[in-house]
Amino acid sequence: MTVSVDTPPARTAPPPRPRAERRTRLLRRVSPYVYIAPFFTLFAAFGLFPLIYTAYVSLYRVELQTPDQMEWRGFDNYTALLSDSYFWTALRNTFSIGVLSTVPQLLMALGLAHLLNYKLRGRTFLRVAVLLPYATSVAAATLVFAQLFGRDFGLINWALGLVGFSPVDWQSGTVASQIAVSTIVTWRWTGYNALIYLAGMQSIPGELYEAAQIDGASRWRQFLHVTLPGLRPTILFTIVVSTIGATQLFGEPLLFEGSISGGISHQYQTLGLYMYEQGWGYFHLGRAAAIAWIMFVLILLLVSVNAAVARRRTRKEAGR
């Protein structure tokens, strides 16, 4: 005789609630925007709005003493700048100081990074040490270099006198003053760019160096044919950043002699210093805003040229 036991039916999961599903789906869609909202809020408040307002102010005649009294001028601020000889002097000085500071700076940073990439004793200390000039205050560094480049009691002229050269007036001469300002910029930013290049070198696969070594390539050949091609995006990045920094150069020429005119004959006045002179020296806020927008357009043009050159080089290498 068999006894049959009735098993209870299996419990089935309740059907999902459509309202809860919609809420979960909505949260998944909205949450990424919530995470990035603080950045865009701060950018709109402190980046986008000042940029747009500066373009608006550049179309008016506004004085610092009476900022609420605005007189429409259209593009007269821009045409007045283009007819001002001091504007073209500042533009030329910005370009020459940028070249004098950027080219040696990046070349020295590349060589320094190549040395730091080797297994040296105390290389961690050396990597930190090269970053110390970047951590130094602009004011402190410029004041120290202003003393070093002093005409009568400066250490640079004393060293030149030891080898038979006459003293150089570093603050009055055009070329000499621009070299002095460029030296300050180069000293501050070489270590920073060296660490960027060092990070790029460490991302290059070691197998490429091993293959080049097996083929009999020397270290110089490895640097030319392995390191430099691998660092091309990093070099482009440092060129763009250094170009932007050179266009906005302000602190070093201002504190080198303490004059907003950039020397007696404006020999090292940059666009940033010229903008400060027009806005806070002569109280012409509208003209200063126009200079700011010219600097912005100039930066866009320089970055576009660098990107176009890099893109053309990439296409040429891809076609080989």
Automatic annotation (TrEMBL):
Pfam families on file: BPD_transp_1
Top-level taxon of origin: Bacteria
Membrane-topology annotation of the record: Multi-pass membrane protein
Chief place where the protein resides: membrane
Domain ABC transmembrane type-1: 91-304
Locations listed in the record: Cell membrane
Keyword terms, alphabetized: Cell membrane, Membrane, Transmembrane, Transmembrane helix, Transport
Entry similarity comment: Belongs to the binding-protein-dependent transport system permease family.
Transmembrane stretches, start-end: 33-56, 95-116, 128-149, 290-310
InterPro entries: ABC_transporter_permease, MetI-like, MetI-like_sf
Region (Disordered): 1-21
The protein, known as: Carbohydrate ABC transporter permease
Annotated organism of origin: Streptomyces fildesensis
